[in-house]
Design goal:
Blueprint: H1 6-14, E1 32-38, H2 42-55, E2 60-63, E3 79-80, H3 89-101, H4 103-107, E4 118-122, H5 125-140, E5 146-148, H6 150-156, E6 171-175, E7 179-180, H7 183-196, E8 200-202, E9 207-213, E10 216-222, E11 225-234, H8 240-246, E12 254-264, E13 274-279, E14 282-288, E15 294-304, H9 312-325, E16 334-345, E17 351-354, E18 360-364, H10 370-387, H11 401-404
Parallel strand pairs: 1-2, 1-11, 2-8, 4-13, 11-18
Antiparallel strand pairs: 3-7, 4-6, 5-6, 9-10, 10-11, 12-15, 12-16, 13-14, 14-15, 17-18
The structure holds flavin-adenine dinucleotide.
Flavin-adenine dinucleotide is lined by residues 38-44, 63-66, 70-73, 75-79, 206-207, 235-237, 239, 243, 259-261, 297, 340, 366, 368-372.
Length: 421
């Protein structure tokens, strides 16, 4: 496979761009694998990549019921940040951000990571005090964070509604190293990287059942036949409860909800940063894509569902949030909106853990925030599968944390959207 470089792009230009290789193979499933990862989203592909790269694992397959990157991987608003406070959680997301900073080089694939800054507006002195505590802690533990007063904010982002906002803006907490990346490119980059290490990525291969023997999974039933397994990792996001039931393990503390995203028609560059705010029941985030579209989103839909489609009440809700903060967008037309299946855990935090079955491992519960977690999630999940024990950084990301009262995220907001504002 071609290694991308300025020279390879130039050379391909000389032949009229006709000689590009396939970026990954399309193999037939083998009868058995040492490790099977279910789900070719970002987390499944990253796990397969790091299994090969960090642990030298061989004979790995990733099974995907549709096409790779067709789930939440291809549906998210691509915000990347590490502005968390609690021990464990902070280190996890900071490790992720550091991996993002070198990801294009590591994968030899441009994931278009743009560190354009993540700007969290605040609207009251109390919110400013809470943000000060969090951002000071981030700085003390090796991350970055700044406070912008109103004068600085007006200079950096002149279009915000500073005059007639229902909740007046008084400043912002900013993480300059945060930003966005191109979601498809991340999925494709990891797929290409995994394929280069011999991983079989098998698309159109739905797992429909699991056969167990002596407390282990011995084979997976799939739409392309039965596949024997030595170890299985689940990375199926909103379908986690379904796979959990196939393993005969009952119920997971996860509910599947929809989260929608929206993109406007392209307009001239007007917003350099990612801007977020949450106040008075509103929850909103917006950035501008390289093509000029305004990409934005808000809360979950207020019911559980497996249907990957949007609905009109959320269009209204999110449009109101948009015009409240950026009234200059009120006549910009909405181009598209869509939904993804969120695996909402009861405390809003993920699971990367062993399960009651000896060779089954779980990666789930990413809620709204799994895109930014992708590199660290793949890194630690691969480590767990390879070494059969969790790294201390993800020690609390287990299923028993509820009985221990372990708190991972400072907000601890689970699937109830009203708690996310
Ligand atoms: C609208 C929206 C906006 C978001 N915005 C952000 C954001 O700005 N920042 C952020 O950090 N996160 C964001 N997220 C969250 C993030 O996208 C997800 O947490 C993350 O993508 C989930 O991991 P994944 O990519 O592995 O999931 P997916 O891409 O959903 O991968 C799971 C895969 O498993 C496959 N699968 C399911 N069942 C089976 C089966 N039985 N057999 C085989 N394959 C199966 C699915 O087809 C799917 O491809 C957003 C999500 C949505 C929906």
């Amino acid at each position: 496979m071609t290694r991308f470089s300025a020279w390879s792009v130039f050379k391909a230009g000389l032949s009229g761009q006709k000689n590009w290789d396939r970026q990954w193979r399309d193999p037939e499933p083998r009868p058995e694998y040492d490790v099977v990862i279910v789900g070719a989203g970002l987390h499944g592909l990253a796990t397969a990549y790091y299994l090969g790269k960090n642990h030298g694992a061989k004979n790995i397959a990733v099974l995907e019921k549709g096409w790779l990157g067709g789930g939440n991987a291809g549906r998210n608003t691509t915000i990347i940040r590490s502005n968390y406070m609690m021990p464990g959680n902070r280190q996890f997301y900071e490790h992720s951000l550091k991996l993002w900073e070198n990801l294009s080089h590591d994968l030899n694939y441009n994931v278009m990571f743009s560190q354009r800054a993540h700007v969290s507006l605040f609207h009251s002195p109390a919110a400013r005090d809470a943000a000060a505590r969090r951002y000071n802690l981030m700085r003390l533990t090796g991350s970055d964070g700044e406070f912008w007063d109103l004068a600085r904010l007006k200079k950096e982002i002149p279009h915000l509604n500073y005059n007639h906002a229902r909740f007046p803006i008084i400043g912002a907490a900013v993480q300059p190293r945060a930003g966005n990346a191109r979601h498809d490119a991340v999925a494709w980059g990891y797929a290409r990287g995994a394929d280069r290490q011999g991983v079989d990525i098998i698309q159109n291969c739905e797992v429909t059942g699991m056969e167990r023997e002596g407390g282990k999974v011995v084979s997976l039933q799939t739409s392309r036949g039965s596949i024997g397994v030595k170890k299985v990792g689940l990375a199926v996001a909103g379908n986690s409860s379904r796979l959990w039931q196939m393993a005969g393990l009952g119920r997971l503390p996860i509910e599947t909800h929809l989260l929608q995203a929206f993109v406007s028609e392209p307009i001239k560059p007007m917003l350099d940063q990612v801007v977020v705010y949450g106040v008075g029941g509103a929850h909103f985030y917006i950035s501008q894509s390289d093509k000029g579209g305004m990409v934005f989103g808000g809360d979950l839909d207020w019911y559980k569902s497996y249907a990957q489609r949007g609905n009109l009440p959320l269009v209204q809700d999110v449009s109101e949030c948009t015009t409240a903060i950026l009234p200059c967008l009120s006549r910009v037309r909405l181009l598209r909106h869509w939904a993804g299946l969120m695996d909402m855990s009861m405390d809003g935090s993920p699971f990367i853990c062993k399960t009651p079955l000896g060779n089954l491992y779980l990666n789930a519960g990413w809620n709204y925030g799994g895109f930014k977690a992708t590199p660290a999630s793949g890194w630690y999940f691969a480590d767990l599968i390879a070494n059969d024990r969790p790294d201390p950084t993800i020690g609390h990301f287990d299923l028993n944390r509820f009985s221990r009262g372990a708190n991972i995220d400072e907000r601890g907001a689970g699937p109830d959207p009203k708690l996310h504002g």
